[in-house]
Specification:
single chain; alpha/beta; 29% strand; elongated; 7 strands; two-stranded antiparallel sheet; 140 residues; five-stranded mixed sheet; metal ion binding
Length: 140
């Protein structure tokens, strides 16, 4: 049912997201922002500590990528509260699709004269490992 309401993004959608981030936030080549949110729940009966998070309550995690207007582009719900955002990302369907290069993220574009545009990036906080896909905010 989730795929009906949040379908897998197309290359065109990613390019449109990049344009939105550039015009609205002055951040070129960003195609989304990712973060996780702890969703509090009542402790399940006979549950082990998997649902108990670092904030000292029971939860599941919602992990999402949003566009420049805060609309969901990809979402994963239901990971144990004890897991980190990056671990959840690596094990989520969209995380695996991104890693396997099957999530329709466009390749860098050759604009002629041997010039290639930079990779598209997803913006995330310190919970996400910095690599070719993730860009983090800089703190002074």
């Amino acid at each position: 049912m989730l795929s009906q309401y949040v379908p897998k993004p197309s290359q065109q959608l990613w390019r449109e997201n990049a344009e939105m981030y550039k015009s609205r936030w002055n951040f070129p080549n960003a195609i989304g922002a990712i973060d996780g949110k702890q969703v509090r729940l009542k402790c399940p009966k006979k549950a082990d500590r998997c649902f108990f998070n670092y904030k000292q309550f029971f939860s599941v995690v919602r992990l999402a990528i949003v566009d420049a207007n805060y609309k969901f582009v990809a979402i994963y719900v239901g990971a144990y509260g004890k897991n980190s955002d990056f671990d959840i990302f690596k094990n989520s369907a969209f995380g695996k699709n991104i890693h396997d290069n099957t999530f329709n993220i466009p390749s860098p574009t050759d604009v002629g004269d041997g010039k290639i545009l930079p990779y598209y990036v997803i913006l995330g906080d310190e919970a996400f490992a910095l690599d070719f896909l993730f860009a983090k905010n800089c703190k002074n």
